Task: structure prediction
Amino acid sequence: MMVIHARQGGRMVELTGADALRSIPVPDVVWIDLEGPTELEVKATETFIGTELMTPTEAAEIESSSRYFEEPPAEFHLNTHFLQPGEHGWRPEPVTFAMRNQVLVTRRSGPLHSFTELARRRKLSAHAEWTGYDTFLSLFDLRIDEDADLVEQLSRDIIVLNKDLNLNATVGKDLLLRIDELLDKAMVLRANIVDKQRTLGAVLKSEGFPTDHNRSVHTLLKDIDSLLEHITFGFERMEFLQNTALGLLNIDQNKVIKIFTVATLIFMPPTLIASIYGMNFRHMPELHHDLGYPLSIALMVLSSGGALLVFRRKGWL
Result:
């Protein structure tokens, strides 16, 4: 789908389709948004702006040269990732940007909330003047706000996890898997925010990017730094929770080992006595004693009871 945001009759309008794009003068177009576009729509856009767009394969690459590059005059191409909720946590959605003659072109494979929200806001302020650079910065501003919401959600999940860890007497596999899942979410979120930091840093160094927008870029970078600090703090909290959970798990395992150790030591003296009188030597005086059997049993009981008494006095039980 192709949505064209253009100036028409002193106000901003939305048009759709390649045919509409061919009928609009280049200076009147502000933003061309391609969502899962057809080959015809891509070709029409490339013809309109006079340059080729990044392919989805190129957008998925992680090399710095594929993230951002410039083609004078006043043109840049970049790609980044916007997080989307997935089946297991968050998944990155590639988004490509191209700027030429103040016309912004965005390409994505599916719907994204920040794009929908910006289009809604532009409809509410249809008479306001805005450029492709304003749109570019607004999209990043909305996306960073959404990332901030994800960071807050992560913090709430950590608080819930901490409470569950304090309330549970024992640590199980489910709790450790929850910690691992949160750590994975934090790593994905941090990598995604760092990617935006690198992208905006490259834009700030661009000679073609208008200097009057540098203040807005600096503000976005400060917001990103704040988010990274919160994520770093979240990492530290989760590592502490992980160490606490492993410590509690070790304590539980030590209790089990302690029980087996005490049981072994308690039954060791009776086993020794039974082993002695289980010998088949001919000359063993106790074998012919009338009270030999009850005395050996009593000796076994006394030895076990004595061991238990010693353990209790030492505080081992």
Remarks:
- DSSP finds nine helices and seven strands in the chain.
- The longest strand covers residues 75-86.
- The domain at 2-249 is CATH 3.30.460.20 (Beta Polymerase; domain 2).
- The radius of gyration is 35 Å.
